[in-house]
Each structure stands twice: as C-alpha cells, then as structure tokens.
C-alpha cells in the first residue's frame, strides 16, 4: 500500500493544474515529487532551500497576494523550527496556508531527535484559529488535503507512515462512531484506530474515530457520552494528553474522567524502528488494552 505522503505530491500537483490560486512552497524536502509540476508552473512551485523560517515567511507573503500556499517539510522543521513565523507571519497577519508535514512523531527514527515532533499539535494549540487534520489512511489523507487546499484558513495536515488497514468515509469535521458500548468512550486519533479496535475488543466501550481534531467535535463527544458515560480515553499519535483540555471543555458541566494516552514526554535515545517506538510508548494493542481496561474497570462511568 502506498503511504499518505505518496499521495501528497500527485494530489496537489493535479490541484496546481486546476486552480491557479494554489502555490507550493518547499524547503528541499519533497522537491522531487513536484519536479514535473514545477516545469508546468515555475512561478507557483517554489523551493527556498534549507531555510525553514523563510519557508513559512514566503508562504505568508504569497497568501497576502491572494494565493493559497501549500507548505511542506518534516513536522519538526515545519512547526517547531519556524514557530515564530507560524505565529507572526501567518497568525498575526491573519492569512491562511496549508502546512503539510511528514515524519509525524517518530516516523524516521534513524534521523534522531531532530526529526521527531510529538509536540507539534500541542504547540499549534497555543495559537488561535488552526484546523488540524490527522488522517489515518492514504485515502483519508487525500480527502483531507482537498478539504484543506480548497479553503482559505490556517490548516495543518499531519501525514504519517503509520496507517490503518482501511480508509473510512470522513467529512473533515465530525468524529465517526466505529463501535458502541456502555462503559466509556475511547477517542482514537488517525493511525491509532486499528490498535484501539484490537485493544478494546470485548470491552463494553464506544470507539470514536477522529481525523480532524481541531476544531474538536464537542457535539460528537457529548452525544457519545449520553449512552456510554463520561469516562473518556484519548489515544493520540502525538504527545499524550494533547486533547485533554478539549475534552474537559466539552464536558465542563458534567462530572467526568479523562485518560490521555500518546507519546510520552521522555526522550527515547535509541533509534530503533517505528514499531519499537510505538511499543515503548505503550501504543500497541497490548499496551493500550492494559491501560484502557484498567481505567474503565475502576468504577462505573457517570451517565448523563
């Protein structure tokens, strides 16, 4: 199966052909995928070199002229390194762009800590007005790219080599109910769904699938808690607890408990493989089963 990133350049290249408002801004990473598109549209495929601050600054300048910039590099170089430009050039100037990342939390372990970004979504949470898409399958990535590029707002699309076995029909807004139960709600984000479904097999819980996490589907979560109770487990492929505040706001008028599972804060200093990093953070089915099972068994959930 191809990866989410494999879909990125072909999808956006077709959109470049169809819409002269779209521009692509790169910092060497991913440039090969846009070589042909660059020949067709040399004024709208721009490679700034290994200059990530300029990458975002140039995109903001293009947005000020009325273009729709699509900006791409590894997550650590797209959100963390040029964060001041994301905050000021895009946010303060109130212009839109589509930031499309690769490498996710630890998709390239041999690249070391410089190429890991489990804190990217949490960092964007310090800013106002960002839409955040976290697809769990290449088909979903394609759908969400179309949603993002055809809009005008500030959007982050987080691509990963981790993937669920099948894509689902998503609308870029609401959570999907994948399984229904009575003893808690588990929110599986993006590529975490398959592991969550395996981990919760036989548990009497509702499983919601989230591929758009900002804005957070408050209404969808509240609907689920009416039947399943207000014990909520978040399983996120980035920093553990990133969306806990969103759950607390959604259920602020109701007694509830939240367990945030995801990438731990501790730095793993061995390269290893993606699978070994997943296991080390307890995000494989066995690790999730132990913690989710213990949480939902510690008391009956409060019902609404």
Describe this structure in words.
GO terms for molecular function: magnesium ion binding. It is a single chain. By secondary structure, the chain is an alpha/beta fold. It folds into 2 domains: 4-158, Rossmann fold, CATH 3.40.50; 176-296, Rossmann fold. The protein has 12 helices and 12 strands. Helix 1 runs parallel beside helix 7 (138-149) and helix 8 crosses helix 12 (285-296). The chain is globular, with a radius of gyration of 19 Å.
Task: Pick out its properties.
single chain; alpha/beta; Rossmann fold; 2 domains; seven-stranded mixed sheet; 12 helices; 12 strands; 37% helix; disordered C terminus; Transketolase-like_Pyr-bd; Transketolase; Transketo_C/PFOR_II
What's the SSE blueprint?
Elements: H1 4-18, E1 22-26, H2 35-40, E2 45-47, H3 52-64, E3 68-74, H4 75-80, H5 83-92, E4 97-102, H6 120-124, E5 130-133, H7 138-149, E6 154-158, E7 176-179, E8 185-189, H8 193-199, E9 206-210, E10 212-214, H9 218-228, E11 231-239, H10 244-250, E12 257-263, H11 274-280, H12 285-296
Parallel strand pairs: 1-2, 1-3, 3-4, 4-6, 5-6, 8-9, 8-11, 11-12
Antiparallel strand pairs: 5-10, 7-9
Helix pairs in contact: 1-7, 3-5, 8-12, 9-10
